[in-house]
Amino acid sequence: MGGFSMSIDPRCRHDRSVRELAAGMFDEGRGCESVAKSLGIPAKAVRKWQLTYRAVGRDGLLKMGKKHARYDFETKVAAARAVVEGGMSKPGAMERFGIASSSPLDQWCRPYRGGGAEALRPRPRGRPRGSGSKAAPMTREQEPGREAGRPGAQVAYPRKSIAPEAEPRSRTGRRP
């Protein structure tokens, strides 16, 4: 068979039909090197497919690229703990906890090593409420109308401003 690499989704370089062929070969018991050679696809991609196939089955492999899976806090902590503290392999943790890709598992292990389970707790997204810039209280000089409201106060703008080159025009009422 030749190379089946039709691009549909930029995040998922090989379309569903190619992954379906790979899943059929995995069903037969073929390894990733053999499948990669048959389909003309890099072995690295097929190895990731095989991990996904083992973790979530044929359906999970065929749904790749459609929607990102969401995992709850308990699953994240259990999987990260099993890998970091329990010494479980990442493919083993993917199978046991039903994680479709190694990427999220990598993203959970890193903060877990540094801060434990609390580092994986979901944080609120977006700007916190009330974080808009609050205007500082105005000084007496800045308050509008305060200066102008005082008797005898003059406005800081000049009353009449005539540019020197505009004088002939203003006297005669027309251009020179």
From TrEMBL:
Family membership: Belongs to the IS150/IS1296 orfA family.
Organism of this sequence: Olsenella porci
Domain Insertion element IS150 protein InsJ-like helix-turn-helix: 77-129
Biased composition (Basic and acidic residues): 140-149
GO MF, any single term: sequence-specific DNA binding
One Pfam short name: HTH_28
Segments for region (Disordered): 108-176
Name of the protein in question: Transposase
Organism superkingdom: Bacteria
